[in-house]
From TrEMBL:
Family named by the database record: Belongs to the FAD-binding monooxygenase family.
Origin: domain of life: Bacteria
Molecular function per GO: flavin adenine dinucleotide binding; N,N-dimethylaniline monooxygenase activity; NADP binding
InterPro entries reported in the protein's UniProt record: FAD-bind_Monooxygenase_sf, FAD/NAD-bd_sf, Flavin_mOase-like
Keyword Oxidoreductase annotated: yes
The protein, known as: 4-hydroxyacetophenone monooxygenase
Keywords: FAD, Flavoprotein, Monooxygenase, Oxidoreductase
Organism of provenance: Planococcus lenghuensis
Length: 509
């Protein structure tokens, strides 16, 4: 059976492969490329949309861009000498992912418009059945590159169903939306909102910005990468590697301050100075000044957010939202704001991961039931009771200081080592031991103690419903990469069969 062959089984067409990858964002593409490099050819990728790109395909709102430098926010195995800016825009990152999928020969392996609805582990068969809107796929191994920022979070506001104007989340921005002359309500002031608010402000009649918690905002040291620099990167790839290494070291050092919040005072002063340069109104400045330590929530980067908020056609409201009417938003004080459109910049379902409700493991219950409100995984990648399942960008693999691509590649390295060990031992299934998983979670939680993410005085999206930070990795990426590289076979348990079902070609690490 080769390259995700479709076979006939008792009159039912069933798609089979050794490995199914779900998602074609950075994580899915990284996993697919590494599988090929290790000699594995029997895998397919399932993608619910009609194109690759994940979050960078979906977030097409005006001003969408990365807040990590381009040369670091890209694959180590696919450097790009043609980035046009220090911080790339959405369209460039999306184009980069399309180019990678094409360059590494992945397009023929992708089943587009296949939305995964459910995953079931079959103990007897030793494989996963992945149910999609276009039929089932079966494979011993599933790599879930679902994406941590893939499903929008929209608050359950009273009366929201009554609104008759345009209403959408920033990750579902309609191409036909025209802000000119409109009165627009913006709900949320996070990483997306601070990018699209400055783009809307010059065109809208009025912007009503409903802010629950102010963010700390620093200047964005952005700028074009000159044509001469790009030519140099083409001629001398080592220069580009040097630039990436420099950025890596600079950003890696920042975790020291996040782990020692007292060191963040100078950064906080920088953020206050940045605000004071644009916001002269004391009342507005007070609304925009956080009451928690910088770094507790995600630090945002922008040069035009504060200037936009200072314009006369922008109102910042901090009273909360009481209800939505057919043509207005009513705040917590009862003041009514007539609007033609409502845009949600309210982030994503990060700790209550939607996919977890649809993955059924060895005992027949879901990942959501297993986690009970607080996601965890060994190396943020594998979960006891869910054999042969690998989660990329899983629990505690997010970052607050540098590029998450570094973590994704380290996780993929770990996956390759587990699969090689599985094949070597002729295991039908493999999963972490409960003891190893508990140890990893305990050590991670201990490392989180004293960091600004847990002591900074805020309630961030990093924290799950139990109050635990199950989102971020609390140390350097160097430490995570070392853990991933130093594979401990004793931390895994496997089920052995006389004739191994896994026939992939992954070389032993």
């Amino acid at each position: 059976m080769v390259r995700g062959e479709t076979i006939m089984n008792e009159g039912v067409i069933t798609n089979r492969a050794n490995i199914v990858i779900i998602g074609t964002g950075f994580a899915g593409i990284a996993a697919a490329v590494r599988l090929q490099q290790q000699g594995e050819q029997d895998f397919i990728l399932l993608e619910r949309a009609a194109d690759v790109g994940g979050v960078w395909r979906d977030n097409r709102y005006p001003g969408a861009a990365c807040d990590v430098e381009s040369h670091l926010y890209s694959f180590s195995f696919a450097p790009n000498p043609d980035w046009s800016r220090k911080f790339s825009a959405q369209s460039e990152i999306h184009a980069y992912l399309q180019e990678c999928a094409t360059k590494f020969g992945l397009m023929d392996r992708i089943r587009f418009k296949h939305e995964v609805q459910r995953l079931d582990w079959d103990n007897a068969a030793g494989e996963w059945t992945t149910q999609t809107n276009q039929g089932p796929f079966t494979a011993p191994v599933v790599i879930g590159a679902f994406g941590a920022l893939s499903d929008p979070a929209i608050p359950a506001l009273n009366g929201i169903e009554r609104f008759e104007g345009d209403m959408f989340h920033s990750a579902r921005w309609p191409e036909t939306f025209d802000p000119r002359g409109k009165r627009i309500a913006i709900v949320g002031t996070g990483a997306s909102a601070i990018q699209f608010i400055p783009e809307l402000q010059p065109h809208a009649e009025q912007l009503f910005v409903f802010q629950r918690t102010p963010a700390w905002v620093l200047p964005k040291e952005d700028g074009p990468i000159s044509e001469d620099e790009r030519k140099t990167y083409h001629r001398h790839p080592v220069r580009m590697k040097t630039e990436r290494l420099k950025l890596y070291v600079q950003r890696e050092a920042r975790v020291i301050a996040f782990r020692n919040p007292k060191l963040l005072k100078s950064v906080e002063k920088m953020a206050i100075r940045h605000m004071e340069e644009s916001i002269k109104d004391p009342a507005l400045r007070k609304k925009l000044t956080p009451d928690y330590k910088i770094g507790c929530k995600r630090i945002l980067l922008s040069n035009n957010y504060y200037p936009a908020l200072a314009q006369p056609n922008v109102t910042v409201d901090t009273a909360g939202i009481k209800e939505i009417k057919t043509d207005a938003v009513v705040d917590g004080t009862g003041q009514e704001f007539p609007v033609d459109a409502i845009i949600f910049g309210t982030g994503f379902q990060v700790t209550n991961l939607p996919f977890a409700h649809h993955v059924y493991g060895r005992k027949g219950h879901t990942l959501h039931e297993e986690w009970q409100g607080s996601p965890y995984a060994y190396m943020g990648t594998t979960v006891a009771g869910f054999p042969n399942l690998f989660l990329l960008q899983g629990p505690n693999t997010g970052l607050g200081h540098t590029s998450v691509i570094l973590m994704i590649e380290a996780q993929v390295d770990h996956v390759m080592k587990v699969l090689a060990f599985k094949k070597q031992k002729q295991f039908d299934s493999i999963e972490p031991s409960v003891e190893a998983q508990d140890r990893f979670v305990r050590e991670t939680d201990q490392s989180m103690e004293g960091t600004v993410w847990t002591t900074g005085g805020c309630r961030s999206w990093y924290l799950d419903e139990t109050g635990r930070n199950s989102t971020l990795w609390p140390r350097t990426t160097i430490s995570f990469r070392k853990k991933a590289r130093d594979f401990r076979s004793a931390d895994y348990v496997g089920t052995k069969v006389t004739e191994p079902r896994y026939t992939g070609q992954i070389a032993e690490s």
